[in-house]
Design goal:
The chain has twelve helices and 15 strands. It is an alpha/beta fold. It catalyses: prephenate + H(+) = 3-phenylpyruvate + CO2 + H2O; chorismate = prephenate.
Amino acid sequence: MTDNPLLNLRERISALDKKILALLSDRHGLALEVARAKQATHRPIRDKEREKELLSTLVEEGRKLHLDGHYITRLFQLIIEDSVLTQQALLQQQHNQTTLRSARIAFLGPKGSYSHLAARQYAARHFEQLIECGCLRFQDIFSQVETGQADYAVVPIENTSSGSINDVYDLLQNTSLSIVGEMTIPIDHCVLVTTPTSLNEIRTVYSHPQPFQQCSQFLNGFPDWKIEYCESTAAAMEKVAAENSPHVAALGSEAGGALYGLQVLEHNLANQQQNITRFIILSRKAVDVVSQVPAKTTLLMATGQQSGALVDALMVFRNHGIVITKLESRPIYGNPWEEMFYLDVQANLNHSDMKNTLEDLKPITRSLKVLGCYPSENVVPVEPRRA
C-alpha cells in the first residue's frame, strides 16, 4: 500500500475491473451453453419477453444499490447484444459445419481504415486468427475473394448520413460471390493530427470522400481548409503521420489514428448524431441460416418497363407478408434509363413464404437473382418493462 490515497483507490478500482472482466467471461461462456440448449430444443435465439423481464429486474436491483436505471439498462443491453450475437455465431458455425480457425479477409485500405476495423470485429467473433488483406479499390476486394486469394470480403454498403455506397452496389451486379453476413459499426469521425495544434492552424485535411460527405456541415465552418481525397481514411492517416505538420489533419477514427500515432483534436463531426455504417460480408460459398436465427435475404431484381411493373413486384412481398427493409435502384450499364433494384427483406430463403414469393416473382420480372441469405446482426435492444 502507498501513502497516496488516489493511487490506492485506483488500485482497488483496477482489481474490481479484473473481477468484472472475469464475470463477463463467465457469462459469455454461459451464453454458449444456452445456444447449445436452444439448438437441441429448436428454440429461437431471442426471447424478447425474457429480455424485458431481465432488464426490469436488474434496474430494480440496481436502484437498491443506488445505481442509475438508465446506466443499468445501457450496460445490460450491450451484454445481451453480445450474448445474442455469440449464440447466433455458434449455431451458424455448427449448422454450416464451418471449421476455419483462421480466415483471410479482404477490406478497403491499409490498417486503421473503418473497413479494417470492421474486418477485425467480424473476425473476433467468428475466427481465432485473422489474416489481413488490405486493398486499394472495391474491385480489388471482390477479385481477391473471387480468385481464392482471400476467404471473405468486408465492404461498406450504406451509411446513415451519406446513404448507399454505389460502387459496391454496382459490383454486386456481376459478382459470383454471396452475401454471408452483415454488421453495423458506429462511426465517430475525428480530426486527427500528429502534434498539438488548433483547428485554425490547419490548412489541409485528408480523407476518403465518404467522411468528407458525412461531415460537410462541420467542414463548412472552415472554408479555407484545402480538401484532399485519399483512397481510404487509413491512407489519409498515413499521409498525415508522414508529413508530421501542425498544418495538416486527417478525418478518421480514433482507433485507426492510434495505429499511426495520431491524436484526436475534435470528436463527433458527422452531420447526423447517429452515424452508422452497415457492412456486408461476402464469400464464394453461400450459407444456410438456421431456423432459430433471424435471417435477411438480399435480392437483385429487374422489372419490365411497363406502367406499374415495380408496384406489381412489390405487392408480391406484401401478399406473402415479407417485410422489405431496403429498396435501392441502380442503372443497368449498357441499357440507358433502365434500372436494377436491390431489396433487403426479413426472410429466410429456406422458408416456404420466401420460396413462394420467389416463384410468384419469376413470371413478372425480367431477371431475379439472390445475392445472399444471411443472419441479421441488427440486434434491436428492448427496454425494461415500465412499473
